[in-house]
Amino acid sequence: MRTETPQPIRLSDYRPPAYLVDDVHLTFDLQPNTTRVKARLTVRRNGDHSEPLAFNGERLKAVSVAIDGRVLGDGEYVIDAELLTIPAPPAAFTLETEVEIDPENNKALEGLYMSGGRFCTQCEAEGFRKITFWPDRPDVLSRFTVRIEADRRFRHLLANGNLVETGELPGGRHFAVWNDPFLKPCYLFALVAGELDVLEDKLVTKSGRTVDLRIYVDPGMAPRAAYAMDALKRSMTWDEEAYGREYDLDLFMIVAVRDFNFGAMENKGLNIFNSSLLLADPATATDVDYERIEAVVAHEYFHNWTGNRITCRDWFQLCLKEGLTVFREQGFCADMRGEAVQRIKAVKVLRMRQFSEDQGPLAHPVRPSSYMKIDNFYTATIYEKGSEVIGMLKTLIGADAFRKGMDLYFDRHDGEATTVEAFIQCFAEASGRDLGDFFAWYEQAGTPRITLSATYDEAARTLELVLTQATPPSNGQETKRPLPIPVTLGLLDHEGRTLAFERDGQAMDETVIVLDQPEVKVTLTGVDSLPVVSALRGFSAPVVMKTDAEPKERYVQLAADPDLFNRWEAGQDLAADLILSRAAGKPNEVGEERYAEAVGRALNDQASDNAFKALLLALPAETDLALMRSPVDPGALHDAREALRLRLALHLDAELRRLHTGLQDLGEFSPDAAGAGRRALRNAALELMAANPRNDVADIALGHFRAAVNMTDQIGGLNALMLIGGPAFEEALADFYARWKDEPLVIDKWFALQGRDPSETALGRILGLTAHPAFDQKNPNRLRALVSSFANFNPVRFHDPSGAGYRFLADQIIAVDGFNPMTAARLVDPLGGWRRLKPELGALMKAQLERIVAVEGLSKNVYELATRALN
Ligand code: 0A1
Ligand code: ZN
């Protein structure tokens, strides 16, 4: 057991920094094990006080500390495990420090570390303190000049901003000096040094400036950066058009690294990416990879305005940059790939990751009020729900006022570190609305439950709608206030035609009802026939909605709702009800048959696109179903879902075969939305066919795998073979490994696929894969490929009645925590679900959390999440 309990940091304790750093000159003498970092800081006391200077510093071997050129003696400063303290410094002075660090042995991948023989950095959130002594907080904004010296074999020496000087040094070394003219917090600092290939391009901005674009990758990989470059150029132009925001430096660089704790990082002018989110070609990347690359390149680029030019005052405001940037990213993706399909995908992610977080012990508000390790708050709530909150704001005040509010925000706060309050204030002013109530969305955890009931009066041609809301209690928040919930709603008649109506005397066919009280009643008039209510269109709020609609109304929506989100949602609702009934021992065979027929009709709808049909064909995930009832029996849910899959596969057999044959790629591979949609539907058809026990299905899947000329189809084939099982799968799995063993990103897919294998014999194989020579706990991509895919996407095997799945996850968390706490902590989440499980499983899971918490020397990161998960 750890000796001291880590203490939380609270928003209410925020104080402005005691000392500011206006300018800094850093010199890096790079050596793998003994890098020297010299820092010369222009420091100024902030306000009138006599507090000591206390700068962060961790794992730094201090060489010297000097003030205004005078080296300080022993009694003049104190260095402990976390801080450099100088009791009474002057009001303004130059602080010079020199420290030594060991990048090669930095396996936490935070601060300065080595990946693939190159130096690179990761400073968000609190990594800069592992590089030099610094007030490591986002409200200290400074001008950085960086000199890098290294052996010439580290050919490229990169940092933020503009390159101002390069040259040779004695002893086979060279140097480069970079200057960043923009004020920035230290978390946006970056440095890269190494042998790299570069893909270059240019973009002319709307004001006519030419920006050099460079993507640095492993030698030989430059062609695989072409798609990311294309996505970057589209993002830059999109931000000019959609938000009037132009890039501000003359150079924009991206570097890909293989060892990275997260996805990517928006360092000013020098983004660093996990190579899995940057490199793609048709042979090695799937359409899902292409789509993610496009989204993440855009996301990091958009941070230049939302995050970098305007940053966060403190880490409690993380959603200020993340929720907003996800929102902007989603707007871009909708424009690139189609609004409805992108919305459905975003909501699937939200439900799978955020709704489960919000229902469990790790629930927290979009703006939390306390934390132990901020690294633990890069969550789906901050990112995805943070984006939903902005989407609701836009719905509530309208697109024009929203854009005005954004313009005001950029104008007013450029160059500042600010707060969510200041952001919302811009929209209150731009719209002339009081947004006081809206703030509750930032402060209250939990997913609101809303109900909707509709009563039609034929004689009066009126429809009375009654909506209610309630948010269940969550950790630390027992009672919840009502939230302003925008419910976008339209009506259909029973033939599926749009039914016009009047609200407050105005004719319309869609309206937004703001549910801002525990209960709201609205009467629509001029309703000509008994309507089907299509509510929460486009998923207008992140809530769980229950209505009194009958299945026949859902079928009308599935066939014809003009809101494609709700058309998809109707199918999901119907399927979920059927699966849950069967899992509860009450199968509804007639309903299942009817559902299969309706899906068949939807597949034949000439008007809807392939990507949409692929989504229609997929049943709700077991993890989503598990959120709908408690106690959860994962085995029963799996079996019930499989039963419906079998029903669909049998009923739609001819249809699926026709799709599988008819949708083959003809001609060149294109990663665009149309090509990806065609492959998605064809692979979804194959996946469903895999549920059909007819023996020719394995041959079809093997043929699909062998004939594949791109990674999407190879993985599609291998996935179907896995679901069928047997010798064909074993053979294909071995072939796949042999063919791709030298391609780390592809081998990650090989591990991830097996992690998701739901078959009865899979658990032993999965646990055994940690002994495979290609498994590497120190590489986060490889670790997550196996461990996260198993724990998050393979519920039936993860929840094995023996508890072996839970024990395996705990083993991995404990081992990885020894060298990379941030990544270890990100594995804890699946263990938070123990309370909702059936008791015998819940007890086994809880025991593993207890085992983790009892580990000697556990990191703060894992301690925080594991203790919260237990409470
Ligand atoms: N700001 C990045 C996410 C990120 C956060 C932390 C990291 O290392 C600890 C790395 C990246 C983004 O939103 O993309
Ligand atoms: Zn971000």
UniProtKB/TrEMBL annotation:
Source taxon at top rank: Bacteria
Swiss-Prot/TrEMBL GO biological process terms: proteolysis
SUPFAM superfamilies found in the cross-reference section: Leukotriene A4 hydrolase N-terminal domain, Metalloproteases ('zincins'), catalytic domain
Enzyme's top EC category: hydrolase
EC number per UniProt: 3.4.11.2
Annotated Aminopeptidase N-like N-terminal domain residues: 25-188
Stretches assigned to the Peptidase M1 alanyl aminopeptidase Ig-like fold domain: 446-547
Residues annotated as domain Peptidase M1 membrane alanine aminopeptidase: 227-440
Gene3D superfamilies noted in UniProt: 2.60.40.1840, 3.30.2010.30, Neutral Protease Domain 2 (1.10.390.10), Peptidase M1, alanyl aminopeptidase, C-terminal domain (1.25.50.10), tricorn interacting facor f3 domain (2.60.40.1730)
Catalytic activity: Release of an N-terminal amino acid, Xaa-|-Yaa- from a peptide, amide or arylamide. Xaa is preferably Ala, but may be most amino acids including Pro (slow action). When a terminal hydrophobic residue is followed by a prolyl residue, the two may be released as an intact Xaa-Pro dipeptide
The entry's keywords: Aminopeptidase, Hydrolase, Metal-binding, Metalloprotease, Protease, Zinc
MF terms in GO: alanyl aminopeptidase activity; metallopeptidase activity; zinc ion binding
InterPro entries registered for this protein in UniProt: Aminopeptidase_N-like_N, Aminopeptidase_N-like_N_sf, PepN_Ig-like_sf, Peptidase_M1, Peptidase_M1_dom, Peptidase_M1_pepN, Peptidase_M1_pepN_C, Peptidase_M1_pepN_C_sf
Cofactor(s) needed by this chain: Zn(2+)
Start and end residues of each Peptidase M1 alanyl aminopeptidase C-terminal domain: 553-871
Function per UniProt: Aminopeptidase N is involved in the degradation of intracellular peptides generated by protein breakdown during normal growth as well as in response to nutrient starvation.
Family to which the UniProt record says this protein belongs: Belongs to the peptidase M1 family.
PANTHER family assigned: PUROMYCIN-SENSITIVE AMINOPEPTIDASE
Protein name as catalogued: Aminopeptidase N
Organism: Phenylobacterium kunshanense
